[in-house]
Amino acid sequence: MSLFRRAFLYLMRKRVKTITLFLIVFVIATLALSSVAFKGAVQTAQLNVREALGGCFVIQPNYNKSTSWEVHSDENGEMTGATFRGAMPSEELADSIAAQLDGLLGFNLSGGDAIRAFNAPDGYDLLHVASGTSLMDAELIVETIADGLENLNDLYATFGAHLCTNSALDYYFTSGEMTLLEGRHLNEGETGAVLISDELAKQNGLTVGDTFYLRDSNRYLISEHIKEPVYFPVTIVGIFSINGTSAYQYSYECAENMMFMTASTLEKFSMGYQETDEEIDLFHTIHFYANDPEDLESMVEKVKALPSFGKDGDFTVTVQNEAILAVKGPLENIDRLVTILFLLILGIGIIILCLILSARIKERIRETGILLSVGVKKSNILLQYLAEITVVTLLACTVAVFGSMFVTKTAGTMLLQGTITDTMESYTQQASSDDYEIPEGWTTVDSGDSQIVKESGTLSQELTEITVSVHTGEIVLLYTAGLLLAWGAVTISSIPLFRLKPREILSKMS
Amino acid sequence: MSIMEVRDVSYSYDGKKNVLNHVSASFEEGNVYAILGPSGCGKTTLLSLLGGLDVPTGGAVLFDGTDIQKTGLGLHRREHVSFIFQNYNLIDYMTPLENAALSGSKTPVMPVLKRLGLTESEVKRNVLKLSGGQQQRVAIARALVANTRVILADEPTGNVDDQMSVEIAKILKESAKETGKCVIIVTHSLDLANEADTILVLKNGVLEPKQKTEAEE
């Protein structure tokens, strides 16, 4: 009788023992596979969090350096104001820092200015603003004139130019506050191309490929007595949406009226950048991104050691990874918990399986002796036992795949999403600003030029769109590990038995 | 010509006292041999050595003139000898039909089981549902079906009643005569021994042939 026939008969006729073994292997396999899948999901969640929250470090002028300020005084020697004259971030500075850092994803320099936009180069056919107040608000004009005309800029600017060197890496986009809906990002150094918001596009009936004209702000033209301003045609290459609403009052500050462009575009129409030989400061911030945001801290330490940084340096460097840190802790805790759980399951599983299989083999000493007495080789008997455990393991693992799919889809996903949601809610509550009256359930995220009021749940919703699922690699791992474990346990359990002489086995039988 | 032979065989469990002491004997095909002796005299040990379940500490066991250790004990058990045990030693999750076919011989099993008195329905039941006598018949069938030239029986009637003992003795004798097999029986039963062609008595580690009348006495 072949070993397969014997194995088949044993499995079919010793049903209670077979089902018991099947259930034990099934439970161990389900728990092991679920914990592996869950661990994978936690790691994916950690990566998603790092990517979604866009951790970066930021370089800005050192506004605390007293020697960088030029103080203005009146005739009586009383201080009337101060102008910052310190060094501003430049492309040269960004390049020199980037050259010293490994693992850098990229960087973006950003700056801003006030501009006007027209449908035609005539100075009359203004584009309508999408948010905030502008020149059209008569009441505001009266108030501003009453204030003494200091805020003319607010009245006449209308739109905001957001300068960037790499719009795809601009913090508005990397932080998730803005999303490119149509078209593409700006190419580095691209002239005559802009990104506008969907609300601005809707307000003016614009779409990707349309052209309009940009010009200096009225304030600049008035203060410089410029009679013939430059109207520069720009083409919309992309339209973005804003995940929230602007918190500012004046239109040129509102994100909805913001136009992304490169410095070379601004230089084409802004006469202040054309009519001087002096070096113009275009940018006020540089955002550096690491391939893995985990490396940000070490990168910042390197930057801080550079000559232009430090207490009295020209620049400051800060890490923007609060959100990552807020979510990192709980996720790492889950990761550790799952790892411990997995090791416990594996350890206890191995012990239980070895004990059960060892007991089963000892129980079959009589059968082993009988088979030996009819001339069946020891290797053939061992193969029969291995064939039996193989069938049980394969069946149990197959059912365990479905079992763990159920476990992970329900308990696992709920637990992971719950952790991220709770953490993000707590983070966003902490991050809420007191500067503005924020509706309940909303929070502000500061991005440099502008400030966006964002629904608290939005970010956590993006992050919790993660499902714990069982992958093919994990299933293959389960089958491989399960079979190796079962084969190992059977072989090890059989060693004492097969070391006996047939006569000793028969003596034990009797 | 002898099919099996023990030549100057000694066996000791502890390396000091020999259970078997330079035992020599030969066994021929078509004959039934009964080995008698008091308990603990080494009868089962001798049977184990003949069946290749153990190896002697001195001397050799030969099959067809060749030392079985040289041909391999596994091969010897598989191809040369088959066993009948006192406690039947049947595999409990198999039917009589499957137990009898365990050796893998191509000899049809059903006719042998029928000849031994088992019905169609009995051979398809679990062996544990048969009586002791029926189980021993299954064990005998397994030995008969196996394509071996020697049957080694260790107290084959130890667990059955007198009537069944006589029947088993008759079956074994018939098998020896019909198939030309050599049957070696270790027993306490004088009745069973008297059915044998040759009676050997193992005493103080020495094997000696005895006349049937002597054995009876």
Explain what the structure shows:
Helices cover 50% and strands 18% of the residues of chain A. With 510 residues, chain A is an alpha+beta fold. Chain A folds into 2 domains: 3-51 and 327-509, no CATH class; 55-70 and 80-320, no CATH class. Chain A starts with a helix and ends with a helix. The relative contact order of chain A is 0.17. Chain B has a single domain, classed as 3-Layer(aba) Sandwich (Rossmann fold). Chain B has helices spanning 43-50, 68-71, 73-80, 96-100, 109-115, 132-145, 162-179, 190-194, 212-216; strands at residues 2-12, 18-28, 32-36, 58-63, 66-67, 81-84, 150-154, 182-186, 198-203, 206-210.
Query: What is the helix content of chain A?
Result: 40-55%
Number of strands of chain B: 10
**Structural class category of chain A:** alpha+beta
The most extensive contact between chains is:
A-B, 24 and 30 residues
Strand-residue fraction of chain A? 15-25%
Percentage of residues in strands of chain B: 25-35%
CA-atom Rg of chain A in angstroms: 35 Å
The biggest sheet of chain B amounts to: 6 strands, mixed
For the secondary structure, the number of strands of chain A is: 15
Query: What's the CATH H-level homologous superfamily of chain B?
Result: P-loop containing nucleotide triphosphate hydrolases
Distance between the termini of chain B: 30 Å
Low-pLDDT stretches of chain B are: none
Query: What is the arithmetic mean of pLDDT of chain B?
Result: 85
